[in-house]
Amino acid sequence: MLEKQVRQIIKIRSTLHPNDLSAYMYWDKLTELLSMNELQTIKLLETCSEEEIEWISEVFEDVAYKLQSVAYIKCLERLDKKYPNLNLTKLIMDAKEMMDTEDRILKEDT
Prior knowledge:
The protein is mainly alpha-helical. The chain contains 7 helices and no strands. It has helices spanning 2-15, 23-34, 38-47, 50-56, 60-67, 70-82, 89-109. α3 (38-47) runs parallel beside α6 (70-82), α5 (60-67) runs parallel beside α7 and α6 runs antiparallel to α7 (89-109). The radius of gyration is 14 Å and the shape is globular.
């Protein structure tokens, strides 16, 4: 189910012009889907094609913020090695920072 929904969003998103404001709606939907279940998301990401990962990478940091998962970050790092042409390193660093930001906020509140 997750796989089908994510692939449908990617299919629609790939037809949009880069400046189309409705892209944000699809980013939100993709983020919501990928943030629902850490294990299912990791499993899905490990089976995605290079092109699919390129589209999904648009929401890496939003998903990292919502999941707060080291396992998710490790999965992204594996994808970076699997698909070096995508240059995911910067996006993964941004995703890690989203987790650090949350950690700092939680520590400041205590």
